[in-house]
Amino acid sequence: MSVQKKRLVVIGNGMAGVRAVEELLVLAPDLYEIHIIGAEPHPNYNRIMLSPVLAGEQTLSDIVLNDWAWYEDNHITLHTGVTITQIKRKQQMLCSKDGDFLAYDKLLLATGSLPFMPPIPGIKGKGVLAYRDIADTEAMIAAASKHQQAVVIGGGLLGLEAANGLCKRGMKVSVVHLAGHLMERQLDVQAATLLQTDLGKRGMAFYTGTSASEIRVNADNEVTAVVLKDGSVLPAQLVVVAAGIKPNTVLAEAAGLYCARGVVVNDTMQTYDPKIYAVGECVSHRGVAYGLVAPLFEQAKVAANHLAEMGIGRYQGSQTSTKLKVAGIDLFSAGDFVGTEASERIVLSDPASGVYKKLLIEKDKLIGAVMYGDTANGAWYFKLLKEGKDIREIRDQLMFGESNIGDSGHQGNMSAATMDDQAEVCGCNGVCKGAIVTAINQKGLFTLDEVRKHTKASSSCGSCTGLVEQILASTLGGAYSAESKADKAMCSCSPHSHAVVRKAVKEHKLLSAFAVMQFMEWQTPQGCSKCRPALNYYCLSTWPLEATDDPQSRFINERAHGNIQKDGTFSVIPRMWGGETTAAELRRIADVVDKFKIPTVKVTGGQRIDLLGVKKEDLPAVWADLGMPSGHAYAKALRTVKTCVGSEWCRFGTQNSTQLGKDLERLYFGMYAPHKVKLAVSGCPRNCAESGIKDVGIIGVDSGWEIMIGGNGGIKTEVAQFLVKVSTDQEAKDIASAFLQLYREEGWYLERTVHYLARVGMSYIKKQVVDDAHTRAALIARLHLALHNAPDPWLMQPASMVDKKQFTTIMLKEIA
Amino acid sequence: MSAEMSHVKGEPVGHPYSERMREVCTLADLPVNGARKLVHGDTPIALFRTLDDALYAIEDRCPHKGGPLSEGMVVGAQVSCPLHNWTIDLASGEAEAPDHGCVRRFACELREGKVYLDVGH
Ligand code: SRM
Ligand SMILES: Cc1cc2nc3c(=O)[nH]c(=O)nc-3n(C[C@H](O)[C@H](O)[C@H](O)COP(=O)(O)OP(=O)(O)OC[C@H]3O[C@@H](n4cnc5c(N)ncnc54)[C@H](O)[C@@H]3O)c2cc1C
Ligand code: SF4
Ligand code: FES
To answer: How far apart are CA A103 and CA A95, in angstroms?
Structure first.
């Protein structure tokens, strides 16, 4: 059979060519007999990572992308160390220096680019190197071990990475750069100045706005110095030329293929010869030749699609962004950072702390960004830029980053969990979040390495590694967190993390905080004020009917059932179901205030009333006189359910939000949780109850209720995320119950729903709460079991275990 | 002579077993691993009972901002203040580093299920 297969030959065993083959193998694994020809003696490696290799941060074996076995496993014939010297297009034959070498049916050109070597005297001297491949890198490493002084010609990305590597290998390095400032194609003067200062501190010397006019060599043609235009002489035994690259079109041009600063291709990556495709740095597409891998990988995908005879992909050009791979230097640049008269600039400059950011805006769109010192939001800006998003709404917050518009900040992992599926994670490989999540779920991936293998994300320059790890964590939910080595001990009393402790409580049926400490061999016999409340909660929430509550492992507020104030008095916030009250309640409140001389009465932000400054001794009597249920304003428990007037009164109301709110509040009365829990129900999308910042927020629409989760209005405002839309009150209650129970069972102590959601991920929660009717029903059942007959502590029923003695102070008579 | 063992580190001075010891409550009046609040004149006193029934009495005013230590969580022979979580050693009355401060201590003991305290006069 295989004899009849068409033969595809790839010239260039580099990043773009091999990527195209990989993509092709996915689409049409058996279509071609594949040959790859490469001049270098290596299998395909990650050229980008030559810089970390030079800097001594990685080794050559670390950067191999496709090892020898890969070619074999995929039945690819690899010809290394072979340089093709001619393409005979009529015969469809490739020649090497020894004559005819291999015939092809389809040809893919991926010859990369050649370093530009300026035509100055001495450029052919021994010790003058380009920076392009493993051989160059090895030669530089060897030179650095023998010699002291190096000159790098070119202060662009490549030149600076070379200079940094040589510096780290102990050489004295001078950088000569033609333009007035470093990396002028990516940076403006301000950012470049900061960069130059930082690199200067590492021992590099800079000569900008000048060029090398000559490279001096000795009698053996060995380099001795570089002479600058102004006549100054920089002694050097190694000269690295990084003055630019030019597409390698030697073969194509000789074969009469149309080239114009690159092999010209159309949007299907086809050259003027329909049998020949081209990808990578050797290509010119719509007049642009790219020198970064991200666009090349996009090209590879399109070429593969057409080689696979599927004929649908089109390459339409790319926006690119740049990062410098010098450890300790944070730099990001994307789009047009110069702009025109018409463009507006938002600039943040803090030279003292080495931070500079500039955003360029035109017609309410971000068109460019340069950042130095703090590049945390680079990916976000790049996304806004690529998508051409209208930024009017967020303009005043734009400079402070995505986090300010909706990031919890607490754990820094919000960005991954809340990113939408189309958002790009790995710029190099154009992998979006959705693809990673799908791979994790469908292929059962658990580790970073597996994700790299299956999706390519984080496998090129590595700057998205943190983000990929977060996606892993949030997609695998509880499963990943439990195994994650990053999991911190919950406090210094033990090495155990919250996840491990929760698991042990469940598996070994541990029924009290002290039982956990004993079983898990706590190093401090009685724990501390941090772990004890957590342990107590874990036992109670896991074994609601059997665990023993330890009031002494609770914070005073939950023991005294009021909020302690700075003067030792307490506040009393009675529950007003859904924020509704009555004349009788208000009258009783007024009477209580008078009778107990309560200094302050305040309407809270939670639609109820706070009596502040109540003496502890008075608490039981105040509660009794009020005759209202506890508002649990002091507890890690259900706080408030805010409602709006809804369809009962409001002319816009589409649903009876007040009723649903009251029902929910009754349903969850006395519900302890990892942290406080707040709900809201609004009757229409005007959302007067502020459902968007609640742990569970519900909004009425004509056809039912929209349910959102994980909102937070506190330390960092976080907008709740849409979970599901339902049509009836009962369904809304069920979904809310199931989610809250899941949170109660899996949340870590003091983790609000926003952080829980960020940790386990929306898709995980959806699966448990929405998609799977069985788990939902089971969760609801367990919640009801736990809340059945939840006592009201203010009635001081025995079940609420209120220590009554605490309300009497022992008065000691003074003896004269 | 005053029996208060004020602001000095080391063993309480005075006469802990002296006649000035007064019965203040029973052991059962104190929550295990918790405290009760006593008031003597202007002085609030926190009377602690640890998990192993050791008793300690200190002034019920946190050296930080006067928080009521009797409302704190008891861990071993330490209490964490309910207001800002300073940790106070019940035996020495000293705040745990990095915080600085010290509270007055009072001698107390258990005799046949009853708690005796020396509050001076
Ligand atoms: C009384 C009240 C302010 C008011 O006068 O309106 C209040 C008062 C306190 N809040 Fe609050 N919060 C009050 C509504 C809110 C709201 C608004 C709301 O609920 O609609 C928020 C933002 C919404 C949210 O939680 O997402 C809010 C976010 C916080 C936070 C930050 C929580 C977070 O996760 O970021 C804290 C600190 C904490 O819980 O650790 C906090 C902590 C506190 C404490 C308990 C501080 C403390 O530990 O002593 C205050 C107790 C006062 C007292 O003794 O009564 N309070 N607090 C409100 C009581 C509502 C109620 O009826 O129960
Ligand atoms: C030090 C360094 C750091 C870089 N850092 C980054 C970075 O941070 N981010 C980024 O996006 N990009 C970076 N790049 C650029 C990136 O590596 C290139 O864009 C990418 O490798 C180009 O892929 P390619 O397949 O087109 O060419 P190459 O990977 O160069 O592959 C071309 C191959 O073809 C072979 N070849 C050429 N002609 C023939 C012939 N006639 N016969 C046989 N074989 C032939 C060559 O030997 C070569 O192996 C960096 C490059 C270097 C050198
Ligand atoms: S905002 Fe701060 S000061 Fe005001 S009630 Fe909330 S916690 Fe207290
Ligand atoms: S008052 Fe005790 S810690 Fe602040």
So the answer is: 9
